[in-house]
Design a protein that fits this description.
globular, alpha/beta, seven-stranded mixed beta sheet, 28% helix
Length: 520
Amino acid sequence: MKHYFIGGGIGALAGAAFLIRDANVDGADITLFEKHPTVFGGALDGSRLPDGSYSLRGGRMLTTDHYECTWDLLSTIPSNDDPDKTVLEQTVAFNKRNVSHSQARLVDRNLHKVDVSHMGFSAHDRLELVQLMGASEESLGDSPITDWLSPPFFETNFWLMWQTTFAFQPWHSAVELKRYLHRFLNEFPRIDTLGGVKRTVYNQYDAIVAPLERWLRERGVRFVGDTVVTDMDIVTEHGEHRVTGLTLLQDGRREVLSLGERDQVFFQNGSMTDATSLGTMDAPPPRLTKADSQGWALWEKIAEGRPEFGNPAAFNTAIQRSLWESFTVTCRNPRFFDAMQAFTGNRAGTGGLVTFKDSRWLMSVVLYHQPHFLDQPEGWSVFWGYALHPDRVGDFVAKPMSECGGREILEELCGHLGLGAEVFEDATCVPCRLPYITSMFMPRKKGDRPVPVPVNSKNLAFISQFVEVADDVVFTVEYSVRAAQTAVYQLMGVDRPIPAVTRHDHAPSVLLHTIGKAIA
C-alpha cells in the first residue's frame, strides 16, 4: 500500500506523521508532491531572501486551550534546537516566560492607546450578536455577516479587535463568524489583551515545520518537489470513486503514475496562499491570480460532475473579497523596536497585534520575541504587519498599499506612529500580496466544502482549509491538522479517538466572564 499527498502543506506533513505514528505505515511508502522545488509547510513559511532580509507571508497565533489535534501531534515531535524537548514542551515553556498581555491593542489617529477594557456594545448590538450565535447553520446558509449585524456593530471596539485578530471582513460568512464565536468564546473576555495567545519560539517554519519535516525524513518519507499533479484518473464503479492514476508534471515532462488497488491519495484542495507574490523596497508585488498559478485547477477539474468533491467556485472567484497584503520588516539596528516598546509598554513578544484603528489600510503590526529566525544575525530584529484594505489610498502615502513598495509602507507606518524615517535606517520591508488569503471565509452553502473522506470515495481524501470539519474553524493550523487526522484515521481504520473539540462555550465560568465583558 502506497500513500500519496498532493501538496506539501502542514496538513500533508501532519497526515504523513499520523500514518506512521498511528497507522504503523512505513515512511518509505509515503510520498509528498509539492510544486515548489524545496520548501514544504505551505502557509507556515519563513525564509531568508537573497539580499539577506526575511519574509513571512503570515504569523499564526496559537492557543493551548484549543488546537487539540495539533498539540497531540507536536507532543511526539522533538524540537530542532532542543531535541530533549518536544515541540509542545518547548512551546509551553517559552510561553510561560513570555506571557501575552497587550497594552496597546488599538491606537487612534492621535496616537492615543484606546481604552479597550469595554467592548463598546449597545443593547441592540448585544441582541444581534446573541441571535447570530444562537442561529442554526442551516438558517444562516450562505449569508454574509452583514445580514445579521447592523452597521453600528462594525464600529465597536470588539469588532475592530476581533476582526484584526482573525482577519474577518463584514462580507464574510456568517456561519464562520458563528463558529469562531463558539470555538473561541473563552478568548472573548480577554480579546483586549490577547491574553490567551501563544506563540512558538521562532517563526512557525523553524519551530513547527522543520522539526516535523526532519522527523518524517528520518523515517524515509519521500519529499518530491518541483512537481505539479495536473490530473487524477478516477474510475467510478457501483457509485464509488477510486483514483487509479496521477498525472505529474516534473521539469516540463508529463508522466502518469499508476496506483495499485490499495493505494491512497490525500489531496490538499485549494490554497489560501495560492498566487502570492513578493514586492521589494521599491516595487509592489505583482498582481497574480489562479490563472497564473493554476493552484485551483486540479480541484476544479475533479469536482466537475462530482458535487461530493465540493465547489471551488464558492471560494476562488472574488479576489477583492479575499485579498489582503502583509509585510515583513528586517531591522538592522534597534531603533524601531526601542521606540515601539517604549510606546506600547510591551516588551517584544508580549504585546500581540497593534492595530491603527483609523488607518484607511486598517494596518496592524506585531513585534515578535527575538530572534525570530534560527539563523538571524545578532543585533537584527524582524517584525510582521498586514493591512485588511490594501486597495485603499493611505493616510500618509497618497496611493493604495497595493501600489506601494516596502519603502512607502514604512513611510505610512511611521506616519501612524509619529516617528521619523531614521528609525528604519538600513531596514528592509518586503510586501506580500495574498489574493486568496481569506477565501476560506467566503459565504458558502452546505456541500461547497467536501468532507475529508466523501462517502463514495474508496481511496481519495481531502485535507485542507476547504473541507468540512464539524464545529472547528478555518484559518487555523488546527483545522488542517484535524482534517488530516480525520482522513488518515478513516481511510486506515485507525482505532484511536481523535481529540475532541473543547467546548469552552459550554463552560459556566466562560459564559459568566463573557457576559460580564459584553455588558461592561
